Amino acid sequence: MPNIFGNLTTEGLEQSRDRLGGFQVLESGPYTGIIKAVYAGKSATSQAQSISVILETDKGEYRETFWITNKNNENFFRNKQDNTKKVPLPGFVTIEDLCLVTSNKPLAEQATEDKIMNVYDPESKKEVPKSVPMLVELLGKQVTLGILKETRNRQAKNSTTGEYEDTPESRDENTTDKVFHYPSNLTVVEARQGTTVATFFNAWVAKNKGVTRDRRTIKDGASNNGQTGRPGRPNTPPKAGDSAPKVQSLFKDN
């Protein structure tokens, strides 16, 4: 089976760290579920790559799209304080962790098979059947996601610059903040360190469960009409410019 992510390794990237940092918007907290789909996509206007995840939980189906590269097809951005350091994109870190905790293999070693999925089509503005590369080794695996509920400004495309910008209107949405191994609740960082006690999970839950984060840049006079959006950050690729070791067999019971 082919591997379409063979170039997206963690070699030369800064190592990630543990940081406390459907259409139904979930309350912040840990959610355990079974992976129904993990498939690759690409921006219609650039080389940016994405991976969409569908997780079946006891609260229903949770969907989120993660951008794993920027418009230059890079899975990192440069550290502003030290331009020699390449920091992995948050979306890439999440998917890399998801691969490791469920299959013990990094994204760059994941095999894919073409599967038919209903995927949103921007031209017809609805979901249509489409063949997509599916990360088949992750299907049916259990995982726990640390999901945040955030209030953000809706975005609109600037007719002059072509860039998406925040508007005064706001909405609540979900985003995955951390990936935890099931059933140990260990993070990839803890597993790399040889830790057997999941201390970060408890700290994350204590800090975030039931808390809605306000991520709005426009607050005064902002109108929130009670509207909610799809889970995940705005579906736009990260921009360019905005050494993790290769690890395997971190989680012995997979």
What does this structure look like?
The protein has helices at residues 90-103, 188-192, 199-208, and strands at residues 29-42, 49-57, 60-67, 76-78, 86-88, 112-121, 126-135, 142-157, 164-180, 212-214. A hairpin with a 6-residue loop joins strand 1 and strand 2 (49-57). The protein is 11% helix and 37% strand. The protein has 3 helices and 10 strands, in the order βββββαββββααβ. The longest helix has 14 residues, at 90-103. The protein has one domain (29-214). The protein has 254 residues and is mainly beta. The strands form 3 sheets. Strands 1, 2, 3, 8, 9 and 10 form a 6-stranded mixed β-sheet that branches. A two-stranded antiparallel sheet has the order 4-5. It is globular.
Secondary-structure map with pairings?
Blueprint lengths: L28 E14 L6 E9 L2 E8 L8 E3 L7 E3 L1 H14 L8 E10 L4 E10 L6 E16 L6 E17 L7 H5 L6 H10 L3 E3 L40
Parallel strand pairs: 8-10
Antiparallel strand pairs: 1-2, 1-8, 2-3, 4-5, 6-7, 8-9
